[in-house]
Amino acid sequence: MQNQGNTVSKLHSEIKERSGQDFYNCIQCGKCTAGCPVLSAMDLLPREVLLCLQMGEEEKLLSSKTPWICASCFTCGARCIKDIDLSRIMEAIRAKILRPRGATCLSPGEIPKELLEKLPQQALVSGFRKFTR
Amino acid sequence: MSYLYFPGCTLKDKSASVMEKTALLAAAELGLPLEEIDEWQCCGAVYPLADDELITLVSPSRTLFAAKDRPVVTLCSACHHVLKRTRERLAADKDARDKISSFLEEEYPGEISVLHYLELLRDELGWDVLKDKIKMPLEGRRLAAYYGCMLLRPAEEMAFDNPERPRIMEDFLQALGAEVITFPFRNKCCGAYLAVTEKQVMEDASNNIVKMALEYGAEELTTACPLCRYNLEQTPAAKEGKIKISFFSEPLAEALNLEVQEVTS
Q1: Chain B: nearest CA to A38, how far in angstroms?
Q2: Hey, is the C-beta of A126 within 8 angstroms of any chain B C-beta?
Q3: Residues A45-72: pLDDT tens digits?
Q4: B4: helix, strand or coil
């Protein structure tokens, strides 16, 4: 079942190393998915993110909206029967996309002025920390 | 003993200054002296989840290194989350600890205590003592606690309360004399920083929480997180005045009959 392609292996090892999580332990029980508070906006379900990693479906994973919808609430990790902290895997996927030079998923100019004035500092700091390099 | 107080960015901002003002007044009244840390820096608001990302641990580490042998007390649940998890990482990971220590050119001070203000009330003061100091019990007021995520999870690192069945905030509200409403979504995420990028997703998540609190009969929802408070306030029910969203220190100051001035929240 493991895809042995070079690119996939590299992605696998990077995500494994950065997240410290072994996604092959996932048995697809779906508890992470059942407890996710922002599930309805995701194109890949939380358990499908793990399945993609297991199946080596790199492109599907890297083009998914799901890591950008995840709010790092840690509910999935708290309920996982195999002790996988999915929030760390989501972070490792975001890091994979954000770290190369020039990549960003949020720039100050994109935030409407009205919202910018209203948002608490904490929202801006965490937003920029999560969505930029 | 006096405690070191770490405010964090948002408590100096108008959106959450009311939490700082009420909490500091109450601490003085309760005999828990909080001394603001000199030249503190923002904790970063989120804990870096990638194992190879050490640079963002530097700022919260500066706070922890400054603490030496005094407990660091926080009000904001995000600051509390970041400082506690950084402490855990420094304690468990020698390599990270040595690199950060070398970067800061400071000796790692060893055991560091990080306490949330609610833990200070529970573990250092005690609910019975708090109850005795209440001057204006909030009788008949239907208050519900909203924990959100940051105080509770991951439970092994936060060691704050049971992540699925917490009670610290309910015990706190009970000590204030309120009628405590316990509702199912009190530890469900409000959408957090999606307020910046995915407004609708945040609003849907927050709406579910507020609707559930109303269904259980709450008239006020109280929290320790400035971002939760902001998000919950964006819901139609809060905007229409059907439910009040407050910081936990507001009903505390009220029950202690403390006059809080110049607060515009």
Answers
A1: 7
A2: yes
A3: 999 999 999 999 989 999 999 999 999 9
A4: strand
Closest partner residue to A91 (CB to CB) among B9, B15, B49 is: B49
Q: Which residue of A has its CA nearest to B156?
A: A78
Distance CA(A94)–CA(B28), nearest Å, equals 44
Within 10 A of B122 (CB to CB), how many other CB atoms are there?
Answer: 21
Checking phi first, is residue A28 left (phi over 0); if not, alpha (psi -120 to 50) or beta? left
Residue B70, phi-psi category: left (phi > 0), alpha (psi -120 to 50), beta (remainder): beta
Separation between Cα atoms, residue B14 and residue B8, nearest integer Å: 13
In the prediction, which pLDDT does B111 show? 87
Asked whether A119 and B196 are in contact (CB, 8 A), the reply is yes
What mean pLDDT, rounded, does chain B reach?
A: 96
Name the residue facing A124 among B50, B196, B204 (closest C-beta): B196
- Tokens representing B69 are 């042998």
Do residues B153 and B185 touch, judged by C-beta distance below 8 A?
A: no
| Cross-chain residue pair B149–A38, CB shorter than 8 Å | no
Strand partners, B223: B247
Judged by CB atoms closer than 8 Å, whether chains meet at B196 and A87 is answered as no
Give the C-alpha distances (Å, rounded to integers) separating B41 from B3, B44, B81: 18, 9, 15
Q: How far is B74 from chain A (nearest CA, A)?
A: 14
Report the sign of the C-alpha dihedral through residues A18, A121, B230, B250, in that order: positive
**Does the structure's ipTM exceed the value 0.90?**
yes
